[in-house]
Design a protein that fits this description.
Helix content: 25-40%
Largest sheet: 5 strands, mixed
Shape: globular
Number of helices: 13
Structural class: alpha/beta
Distance between the termini: 52 Å
Strand content: 25-35%
Number of strands: 25
Length: about 500
């Protein structure tokens, strides 16, 4: 039996007085981190949380996140992390679909989380940014609730372009092995390392590669609640950050500061990029400006997340996502699941200890995604003669805006709620800083009227701020295929469309 949170209990005695978590002037040692998590665990049990229950979390990158996360795991619960930018209707869906017993929210998310919890008829607990006193029992829990390797530790909601978001069930074993492989073979981290915590911890990249791998290594995680390129450079200098992890837009934001070399970043020994393709020119400029190597990798929510990487002691190929990590296999297949010939483009299929056990209460979706033991990613890639993979395009039509996943169907559904809207197609358009921007073409019902600003504001009120379509325009009709299905790929963006 194994509980992912055992890693914290194992590290704490060895590194008791070392800083585990930092956020500007606030910090927790490993001993304080452990004790607070054990008290949160006792507090959740006192609120009726049983082993296997789901605990929702709507928290940004503040000290309370790791404490609540490990506290929930110690209680034997499965954690459902959510973006703190979500609106009440979005939180409500996650709570009801997962059957959460309680939701824990930061003060800035208290109102939408509270509204969602009321609808779901569960308790909402608002906690402070530093130590979540409101959730902590007076006496700590004595030991973790035992869990099996196959028990669900985290449910991460993800989605294709059709249907409602699906909860990927990541187990104690899949998350644990992925964190250990990341820590041992990619980061090669030690208790002397300081890891930059600007990747959202509610996303699996930050959760596994920053928090869980950091706890295993006994390293310090220094948190930034809201990313800013200038702030990141200040923190690297102030805290002597040794490992920086980010999505490509974060690297660009630091690189494109008016004074990128003003701060001393000589402590950096490794930078890790994932989440979306790193432009080769950005990688080259970043390494040249800051004198630090960047290793690019690849993964998904369903793979805990790391699947492949440019490994530290192997040849590094800019533009490539590298080779599979320890315990993972990758291959390229056609629509029938057969291997594609060498050098040709195929869909990335993954098998290994990192793959989810399935989508929460969706056996048919699980069978479609993992038809033969190999998880179909929906990403298209080619492989060179050395075995390195290169992502070509996404088979699915998800939009990645500034490192955040935006699912077109969700935006379309929100706009369809407007009484004047007949048809919507949401697409991603290239953006120099964000990677992609969210755009929507809208056809109105005959005789109905609505202007662009009204529709944009309508969507903005219904989805998180990073999701609503900044680019929106009206069309007479949308392109369709022979069956009448709207063809997003055939939507053309007018040259004069405005952005807001």
């Amino acid at each position: 039996m194994s509980n992912l949170a055992q890693n914290l209990l194992d590290t704490a005695p060895k590194e008791a007085t070392r800083p585990a978590l930092r956020m500007d002037d606030a910090s927790l040692t490993y001993a304080e981190f452990r004790d607070a998590a054990l008290r949160v665990s006792a507090g959740l049990r006192a609120r009726g949380v049983e082993p296997g229950d789901r605990v929702g979390m709507v928290l940004p990158n503040v000290l309370a996140f790791p404490v609540v996360f490990y506290g929930a795991l110690l209680a034997g619960a499965a954690v459902v992390p959510m973006n703190p930018l979500l609106k009440a209707r979005e939180i409500e869906y996650y709570l009801q679909d997962s059957g959460a017993r309680v939701v824990v929210a930061a003060e800035q998310s208290a109102r939408p989380a509270g509204e969602a919890a009321a609808t779901a008829a569960i308790e909402a607990v608002t906690v402070g940014a530093a130590v979540p006193q409101e959730l902590m029992a007076a006496e700590p829990q004595s030991e973790p609730v035992p869990r099996e390797d196959s028990d669900t530790a985290v449910i991460l909601y993800t989605s294709g372009t059709t249907g409602k978001p699906k909860g990927a069930e990541l187990t104690h074993a899949s998350l644990g092995s992925n964190a250990r492989t990341t820590e041992e073979t990619l980061l090669e981290a030690t208790p002397d390392d300081v890891i930059m915590g600007c990747l959202p911890l509610f996303h699996v990249f930050g959760l596994t590669c920053s928090l869980n791998a950091g706890v295993l290594a006994g390293a310090c995680l220094t948190l930034i609640p809201r990313f800013d390129g200038g702030k990141a450079l200040q923190v690297v200098e102030r805290d002597h950050v040794t490992i920086f992890q980010g999505v490509p837009t974060m690297f660009s934001a630091m690189l494109h500061r008016p004074d990128p070399t003003e701060h001393d970043v000589s402590s950096l020994r490794l930078c890790v990029s994932g989440g979306s393709a790193m432009p080769v020119e950005v990688m080259r400029s970043f390494e040249e400006t800051f004198g630090c190597i960047v290793l690019e990798g690849y993964g998904l929510s369903e793979t805990s997340p790391v699947a492949s990487f440019n490994h530290p002691h192997a040849e590094r190929k800019p533009g490539s996502i590298g080779t599979p990590i320890r315990g993972v296999e990758m291959r390229l297949v056609d629509d029938d699941g057969r291997d594609v010939p060498a050098g040709e483009v195929g869909e990335v299929a993954i098998r290994g200890e990192n793959v989810m056990k399935g989508y929460w209460q969706r056996p048919e979706d699980t069978a479609t995604a993992i038809p033969d033991g190999w998880f179909r990613t929906g990403d298209l890639a080619r492989q060179d003669g050395d075995g390195y993979f290169f992502i070509v395009d996404r088979k699915k039509e998800m939009i990645i805006r500034g490192g955040y996943n935006v699912y077109p169907r969700e935006i379309e559904e929100a706009l369809y709620e407007h009484p004047a809207v007949a048809e919507v197609a949401c697409i991603g358009v290239t953006h120099p800083d964000l990677g992609e921007e969210v755009a929507a073409a809208v056809a109105l019902k005959p005789g109905a009227s609505a202007d662009v600003d009204e529709l944009r504001d309508f969507a903005k009120a219904r989805v998180a701020a990073y999701k609503y379509p900044r680019l929106l325009w009206l069309v007479d009709e949308l392109p369709k295929g022979p069956t009448g299905k709207i063809l997003r790929r055939a939507v053309e963006v007018p040259g004069d469309v405005g952005r807001r």
